[in-house]
UniProtKB/TrEMBL annotation:
PANTHER family: C-PHYCOCYANIN BETA SUBUNIT (PTHR34011:SF7), PHYCOBILISOME 32.1 KDA LINKER POLYPEPTIDE, PHYCOCYANIN-ASSOCIATED, ROD 2-RELATED (PTHR34011). The lineage of its organism: Bacteria, Bacillati, Cyanobacteriota, Cyanophyceae, Oscillatoriophycideae. It comes from Aphanothece hegewaldii CCALA 016. The keyword Protein transport does not apply. This is Bleomycin hydrolase. (2R,3E)-phycocyanobilin 2 binds at residues 72, 77, 82-88.
């Protein structure tokens, strides 16, 4: 697992050069946006249960067969597993957002996820749809446009929102 600083060091080391130029500018930007990053992570973490339950409920509304007998969210233990998995994915996305690097998401969550879900018979299209709904909910919370408002640092959150959205897109891409 790497953070923005570790990634810069590893990159510079592989080129056998010192950190400088663009890498240093990127680290300065990372530090300058630190409070926005923390606010974004806090917005997601504070609303994680709502984000997860809304995304799974939205997925089920679009595919009622999931909760019918024989569906992948029936009986209750399968629904609980679905909610648990969605929470785990969201947690790793927040870790990636906090560190400014997707390696923790890739290494600990996405590596082998599709193969595991295929082996278990989990419908990938529905799972990807739930992640898409999670993305919309999380972005609304980061931008403070959801119904539940939070006290946040004022200013442009476009960069941090785009970064968060890219982590959700990464998960969707792996499932597709």
């Amino acid at each position: 697992m790497l953070d923005a600083f570790s990634r810069a060091v590893v990159t510079a080391d592989s080129k056998t050069s010192a950190i400088g130029g663009q890498e240093l500018a990127n680290l300065r930007k990372f530090i300058a946006e630190g409070n926005k990053r923390l606010d974004a992570v806090n917005a997601i973490a504070s609303n994680a249960s709502c984000i997860v339950s809304d995304s799974v409920a939205g997925m089920i509304c679009e595919n009622q067969g999931l909760i019918q007998a024989g569906g992948n969210c029936y009986p209750n233990r399968r629904m609980a597993a679905c909610l648990r998995d969605a929470e785990i994915v969201l947690r790793y996305i927040t870790y990636a957002l906090l560190s400014g690097d997707a390696s923790v998401l890739d290494d600990r969550c996405l590596n082998g996820l599709k193969e595991t879900y295929v082996a278990l018979g989990v419908p990938l299209q529905s799972t990807a749809r739930a992640v898409g709904i999670m993305k919309a909910c999380a972005v609304a919370h980061i931008n403070n446009t959801s119904e539940r408002k939070m006290e946040m640092i004022q200013g442009d959150c476009a960069a941090i929102t785009a970064e968060a959205a890219s982590y959700f897109d990464r998960v969707i891409s792996v499932l597709s």
